């Protein structure tokens, strides 16, 4: 049974930082591209960042570029999202997701992902 568990969310003031983690189990982690998405109340789930299964390729949404960094530790079956210079508009539930893929493939389409975590709340106050 595949399980993705996010952690590291919380409340932070504008300009602050948080590091989200997503621990995966029940799958061969190094075969999966990983992604981070977020969903604010009343809005659709949107792409934040993604990383290839080998960790060499990454992509970030324009809204978070230069502020958020995605990385992964394959031996520890974990993907991270380092979030700096947080803004109130970053407030959302953040989800990690997994999809089996080729080594250098980055997947940004929410519909292509197979497995999802339950999400972790990030709240940025002004």
Question: In words, what does this structure look like?
Answer:
- The chain has 126 residues and is an all-beta fold.
- 0% of the residues lie in helices and 50% in strands.
- It has no helices and 11 strands.
- The strands form 2 sheets. Strands 2, 4, 5, 6, 9, 10 and 11 form a 7-stranded mixed beta sheet that branches. It has a 4-stranded antiparallel beta sheet with strand order 1-3-8-7, with no helix packed on it.
- 33% of the residues are buried.
Estimate what percentage of residues fall within beta strands: over 45%
Coarse morphology? globular
Helical content band: under 10%
Number of strands: 11
State Rg: 13 Å
Main sheet, how many strands, which sense, barrel?
A: 7 strands, mixed
Concise structural overview:
The chain is built from no helices and eleven strands. It has strands at 3-7, 10-13, 18-25, 32-39, 46-51, 58-60, 68-73, 78-83, 92-100, 115-116, 120-125.
What are the key terms here?
126 residues, single chain, globular, 0% helix, mainly beta, 4-stranded antiparallel sheet
SSE order and pairing:
Blueprint: E1 3-7, E2 10-13, E3 18-25, E4 32-39, E5 46-51, E6 58-60, E7 68-73, E8 78-83, E9 92-100, E10 115-116, E11 120-125
Parallel strand pairs: 2-11
Antiparallel strand pairs: 1-3, 3-8, 4-5, 4-9, 5-6, 7-8, 9-10, 9-11
């Amino acid at each position: 049974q595949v399980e993705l568990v996010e952690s590291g969310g919380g409340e932070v003031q504008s300009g602050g930082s948080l590091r989200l983690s997503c621990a995966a189990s029940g799958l061969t982690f190094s075969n999966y591209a990983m992604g981070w998405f977020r969903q604010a109340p009343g809005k659709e789930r949107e792409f934040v960042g993604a990383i290839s299964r080998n960790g060499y390729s990454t992509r970030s949404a324009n809204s978070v570029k230069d502020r958020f960094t995605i990385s992964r530790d394959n031996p520890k079956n974990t993907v991270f999202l380092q979030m700096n210079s947080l803004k109130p508009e970053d407030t959302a539930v953040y989800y990690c997701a997994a999809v089996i893929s080729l080594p250098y493939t980055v997947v940004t389409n929410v519909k292509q992902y197979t497995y999802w975590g339950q999400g972790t709340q990030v709240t940025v106050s002004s």
